[in-house]
TrEMBL record:
A single MF term (Gene Ontology): trehalose-phosphatase activity
Function: Removes the phosphate from trehalose 6-phosphate to produce free trehalose. Trehalose accumulation in plant may improve abiotic stress tolerance.
Protein's UniProt keywords contain Ligase: no
Native organism: Heracleum sosnowskyi
Record-stated family: Belongs to the trehalose phosphatase family.
Gene3D superfamilies per record: HAD superfamily/HAD-like
EC number, UniProt record: 3.1.3.12
Record-given protein name: Trehalose 6-phosphate phosphatase
Amino acid sequence: MTNQSVVDCASGINVVAMTVALANSSLFSPVAAALPKPSFGGSGGYITLSRTNSIKNIEINNGERVKRVHAWVESMRASSPTRKSSLSDDHKTWILQHPSALGMFEEIIEASKGKQIVVFLDYDGTLSPIVEDPEKAFMTTEMREAVRDVAKYFPTAIVSGRCRAKVHNFVKLSELFYAGSHGMDIKGPANGDKRKTGNHGILFQPAKEFVPMMNNVYKILMEKTKIIPGAKVENNKFCLSVHFRRVDEKLWVDLAEKVKSVLKDYPKLRLTQGRKVLEIRPTIKWDKGKALEFLLESLGYGNSDDVLPVYIGDDRTDEDAFKVLRKRGQGLGILVSKFPKETAASYSLEEPIEVMQFLQRLVEWKRTLANIT
Ligand SMILES: [Mg+2]
């Protein structure tokens, strides 16, 4: 993994640390650089800068710093489109490069022959819609049923930027693995079938020592941002999320400045940006991709060819997991998006309802198979 990071908290909130969206740009990380580059030309590409380069460069002078904050804000706008226009040629090209996982279902099943499918699901924007109030990002009963059914047949993990307890409270299924705080807080099913869940008692918290610091910074952020109407700070234990969803766009730069200013006293923390959210998290090299690798290892598939990980997510923090799958040369990355985005995922689904349909088809296929054999 490179030292660019990742995140997604409580909302649809994901982030590659220091990632700036720019038109027609490309990914610079070593893994991504080797990937085919979609040739869409709209407002979608991302430039990913290493923390070392980005943060130091930002501090060169005030002008650069201001530019940086504006870049975050512009990036949030670009990653949170609100309208779907008729398909442009670029969009059609993108869909050809990232076909619908529903449309390609038979091919996907073919690729899984002789392999154990392991399912990884982001939460916000993947299982639940992105809503104005992150506390109300509820998944539907039907979606919960689909996830429950999938977990009956395949080891299944929720990988979210939210703190583990919070995402568990939304999903309400004890038979799953949960990787909260962008994978920095991993726990297995309470009463899992060990044949399916391997070392189900796992509890892994690689950033545990940062908790007191995060709590301090949470208090500081609450104080600094309270004068901005609509700003919401969420403590996700190993990741602090500042939500912009309810803030007037005219105040986004002010809010971003306030969040950024907190970091100067905490060199061991870094800032990342996502869909209407800025997040502060430890500078450890850990992300959703690392969480995916850890969970596969825990399930006994660390170096196995007999596994087909399927990772579904909607945001930049999920890109780290997509890149891990590319690097391993196995599994499927599925990006949830109605719009063209530069991504390391191979397939796409437009919105959570399609994710549900995909999960339901996986279950139907497995049930049919069980009846035949
Ligand atoms: Mg998400």
